[in-house]
Design goal:
alpha+beta; Umud Fragment, subunit A; Immunoglobulin-like; 3 domains; five-stranded mixed β-sheet; 7 helices; 37% helix
């Protein structure tokens, strides 16, 4: 294999992975290594549609003034992910501001940002954000299409498990499996042997399978990362007692039930961690079956000073494809380590089951009629003809 062909195949694989990350991130509500801005609030640092490398907070150091962070806003445009710069810090949290805005987010009714709300930091080199121009422009055009696909399939099949981030994971799983099985069935051993005796051009079938494995990994990550995240509790530290669970006498505590639903079909291992002072969780580890709901209890403590406070619990979810003890050991090292190991297991298992059945040939473009050709071959062939 010559260098040019190797570089071409590597670029194809990189493009597949980048596209999958960008499409999955908006659906998850959490960036997956790559993200983008939709408005001009960060001009001139980032124009609308520009992308950036979003480093998960679990992999970065403490947030500092000058960092550009993506956080879960409560008030800005009705709430949701916002990417702004940290311009200060108080006892109640961080002060943030868009580079193009004349006022801070907190001047516009957004509460101070807590560490538990920050999901990623924009990669910076020498204090400058690494910007990828126009990266998000195409992605925004696909968001509505992706939601429409999920909604239509959920309606046709009569299940809500295909909605949301976890539904995206199942959808990617299904499409990958069906795509490969149909292609393998149509191909046949005889036609694969015949192709090895012909002059071959195009993309290696092994590269195609590796691309499928990459999509499978993105789907698995979506199924785990999507339902995870930070759960917020509003606590009123009061001078009196109340029947309301969120009103607690100053310096005292109240316990309330905490439900952990699993809308998917695959059992998940769930780990719960307090993410702020004054929070205790009765059960830090739960295994929740597909379509089931587990319950535990959360104890919230009111600070001695009266007022309104926000307290947080962080959930980490992992597909239950490994023994719980193994997941627990990996989780103890780092919360992202089980995700990496499970993704590697799924991708490695997929390749182990599929690579022995391919001959190392190439998915080719042919000029004769398409009848009898493989699904992969027809798709790649038609795309090459359009490019000419």
């Amino acid at each position: 294999m010559n260098v040019r062909r190797t570089l071409g195949q590597s670029l194809t694989l990189v493009l597949i992975v980048v596209a999958a990350l960008l499409l999955a991130g908006p659906a998850l509500g959490q960036p997956l290594l790559l993200s983008y801005v939709e408005t001009g609030s960060m001009e001139p640092t980032m124009e609308p549609g520009d992308g950036f490398v979003a480093v998960p907070t679990e992999l970065t150091g403490p947030v500092e003034q000058g960092d550009v962070v993506t956080y879960e806003a409560e008030e800005i445009e009705g709430g949701g992910l916002t990417t702004h710069r940290v311009v200060g810090e108080t006892d109640r949290g961080y002060t943030t501001q868009g580079d193009a805005n004349p006022f801070t987010d907190q001047d516009d009714a957004e509460p101070p940002v807590q560490d538990a709300q920050i999901v990623a930091k924009a990669l910076q080199v020498n204090g400058e954000v690494v910007v990828i121009p126009y990266l998000g422009t195409a992605v925004m055009g696909f968001q509505d299409l992706l939601v429409t696909m999920q909604t239509t399939l959920a309606s046709l099949l009569g299940t809500r498990s295909l909605l949301g981030a976890q539904g995206l994971g199942y959808l990617v799983f299904a499409l990958t499996a069906v795509y490969y099985v149909v292609d393998w069935y149509r191909e046949g051993e005889t036609k694969r042997r015949e192709r090895t005796r012909e002059r071959e051009t195009g993309v290696s079938t092994r590269v195609v399978l590796v691309g499928f494995a990459a999509v499978l990994v993105v789907g698995a990550t979506a199924a785990m990362v999507g339902p995870s995240g930070t759960q917020e509790f509003g606590v009123v530290s009061a001078e009196f007692d109340s029947e309301r669970p969120d009103v607690i006498p100053a310096g005292e505590s109240k316990t309330q039930p905490y439900a952990v639903p699993n809308a998917g079909l695959v059992p998940t291992d769930v780990y719960l961690e307090p993410a702020s002072d004054g929070v205790r969780v009765a059960d830090s580890e739960l295994r929740v079956g597909g379509g089931e709901t587990a319950e535990t209890e959360v104890t919230l403590s009111a600070p001695p000073e009266t007022g309104y406070y926000r307290q947080y619990v962080v959930e980490y979810r992992y597909l239950a494809v490994l023994p719980a003890s193994v997941v627990g050991g990996l989780y103890a090292v780092h919360p992202w380590l089980p995700v990496v190991v499970i993704d590697a297991l799924l991708a490695g298992g997929f390749l182990a089951l599929t690579l022995p059945f391919v001959d190392g040939g190439r998915v080719r473009r042919r000029s004769r009629p398409t009848r009898g050709r493989s699904l992969v071959g027809r798709l790649l062939g038609s795309s090459r003809r359009r490019e000419r």
